Every structure is written in structure tokens, then in C-alpha cells.
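Minutes, structural biology subgroup

Action item carried over from last meeting: produce the C-alpha cell record for Magnesium transporter MgtE (Corynebacterium frankenforstense DSM 45800). EB confirmed the sequence was re-checked against the source entry. Recorded below for completeness.
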Amino acid sequence: MGATETWDLDGLKRILRADNLRPEQAHELAARLAEPPIQDVVALVERSDPTRAALVLRLLSRRRSIEVFDALDPRHQADLIGALQNRDIYEFFDELDPDDRVSLLDELPAEIAEALLRQLDPGESHVTEVVMGYPKGSVGRRMSPEVATIYSTMTAAQALEKLRRSAEDVETIYAVPVVAHDRKLEGFCSFTEIFTADDDTRLAEIMNPPVYCRAHDDAEDTARWFLPLDYLALPVVDDTDRLVGLLTWDDAQDIVEEEDSEDSARSGGSEPLQQPYLSTPVAKLVRSRVVWLLVLAVSAILTVQVLDVFEETLSKVVTLSLFIPLLTGTGGNTGNQAATTVTRALALGDVRKRDILQVMWRELRVGLMMGALLGAIGFCLAALVYGVPIGAVIGCTLLAVCTMSATVGGAMPIVAKSVGADPAVFSNPFISTFCDATGLIIYFLIAISVLGL
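Output recorded by EB:
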């Protein structure tokens, strides 16, 4: 079965690559698109340019085309908007959940976003605008406002009937917030608890104490503490504790995945693509990288300036230049290790901004121990080949550079978070440049002192 599906997908790709698609090929393509699992069709769309991807969506059945479009990243959806016909656009947009609509609208030009909003019916337009009313990065921006209203005074039978009637209109019926008549959150029930209870049992008797978040809470922080709880959904309340929506488990997982991808990209000196690599235009790939390369190129001038200042020292002891790559590389790697560890701890909530002194003290000791070990090895090897004085310079420099790099690398992500910047931005690229420049200064100062230059 797997081999047949793979062959079929390869055939689809060959047809899509054709410059001129004949009518009989379109019929063949439509027939083949009805066969593979939905995830294979999503993969096909993600690997196609917008024009061909739009063609695939038009040839799918209505249900499958909506499922495929809904599975795409918002940035990819936005790229497809220009290649789709107006009728297709409105249909796909109307079928999206309110939070997914808002994510797509954030990627579109204002005039297109306004046109899409105008074509929604009043009810769908209202719930979409509710989500759009919350700031970007907040839980409210990622929640679903479509929630079944279940009261604590209801019996299990009444609640089941209410869920049955509203199942098609709400995000989920498997995690049920229980509210008072003024919509203040009172408790939480699973569908199983309601289904297995006696018909005349009131929800107030079986509901659990509510675990909830507020609509203005940070989406990433909330998602990270919510996922390990293994709940299907998390009630979202406003400042007066009234229920305004649900954050589902899969939406929380998407938030964490997006943030991890963003941190990974920025720690490597580029911007996140926010859509599959093969469907990303080359120009967009260039834009995601070139700014950071320019920033790093400018910052690397610091290293050149340091070498220029100590040019006379290098001319007296040329041997010192042989160890520059070793020392700068060791300092950068040490700082990157510390920064990556602390950035991850910040994301998981293990470290907070107020812990900066504790983190610096901890990383200072880690750097000191690593520096002592590497310095001892460096001293022995350099002393055997170039003499004891050079060995002493290398050993002392490794000790100082590792201590400095670990301390600074551990502190920078916390400093970044304190000033509202992304901790990942202050990770590998900037720390490497910083440690290169300061490491060279330390190196030449120790050399001048030990060698009497």
C-alpha cells in the first residue's frame, strides 16, 4: 500500500510540473487526488509553488480542499490567496476557526483582510473580531471563543442535550467549562464525566475546580505550562473571571512549536520562515538571512579593530597568532552553550528574570571549572612545543575566556527578556562576536603581562 501511494504522489508531482496542463491531465489529477491520505496531499501542496498548489486545492473535493487549506501554516495560506479565485478564498476563509482566521488575516495586506471580513456573516464576523481585539502574542489571540455554555445548575442530562445541539458550532465538547449565569467560571468537566453521571446529577456535584488562564496572558508561557497537564482544553477568562474562550491542546502545541522554530532560526542568525521550506520563494529566503549577515559582518569589525590595536604585539611574537582561532572558537562555543541552556530554561519557566545573579554565579563556576580543565591541557601541549611562557599564556587565557564567556552567555538571554527582546536573538551570533573581541583583548593583555612585551 505504501509503495502504491508513493508512486501515485510521484505521478502527481510530474503532472504538476508540466508547463501546460491538458484537460485530460486535470481529470486524471483530480481522480488521483481523491485517493491518498490527507496528510500526503498536504505534503504535496507544501512542496508546490502557489499557482500549482492552488490548482491542487481546486481539483480536490470541497471537504478535502478545506481540510488541506486549514492544515497549512498562515503564511503559506496567505501566499495562496493571490493564486485562488475569489469564490475559493471566501469559502476557505469562512470554514476556518476564528483563531485560525485571525492568524491568516495577520499575514495579509489590510485591504484583502478587510474584504474577507466583510464577506463573513454577522455571527462569524463578531467572534473573529473578538479574537482580533486581543494583543498579538496573548492567549486571547489564539483561543477559540466558540464555547458551549454549560451552567453548574444543569443536570447531566440537560448538559448532554446542550452539547448535542451545539457540537457543530463549538471548538470541542470533550472539555467542558462550567459557568454561572453571569458567565463566571465555576468549574470544569470532561465529556466522560458528564456522560457517565446519572441523568439527574447536577454538574455542581461532579465538576472539578477550574484550571484556567487569562486572555491577556502570554501565549507561549501559558502553552508551556498547560501542555504537561494533559488536559484537552484550558478555559480562558477575562479580568472579571468571565469565560471568553478555550485554548485547546493542539493550539497550545502549535504555539510552542512556532516559538521553538523561531528561537532555533534566530539563534542561527536568520528569521523564521513560518512556512515549509520548499514552498518558500528564494527572495524570501534571502530576506530571512541577509539582515542578520549584515549585522554580524558589522559587529565582526570589532574583532578586526582589536587585532589592529595589538598588531605590534603580534609582530614581536608571531607564534601568538597561531592560537587565535583556538581561543576565539573556545570562547564562542562556551558562551553559546551557556546561552542555549539558559534560553531553554527561560522558555520552560525554570529560570526567571529575577534569577540573573544566581545564573551568573552558577555559570561563572561552570566556566571556571571548564577553563581550568582546558587551560591545563592547553598549557601542557603549548609548553611542550613552544615553551613554558607561551604555554602559560594559553593556559591562563583559556581559564579567563571560558569563565567570562560562560558568565556573559548565561546572563545575556535574561537581559534580553528584561528589555523585551527575544532571548534567542542574543544567543549564538551576538555572543560569538562578543566573545571573539573580548577574548582577544584578554589574550593579548595576558601575553603582554607574561611575556613582558
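Discussion: The longest helix spans residues 356-386.
Next step: EB to file the record with the rest of the batch.
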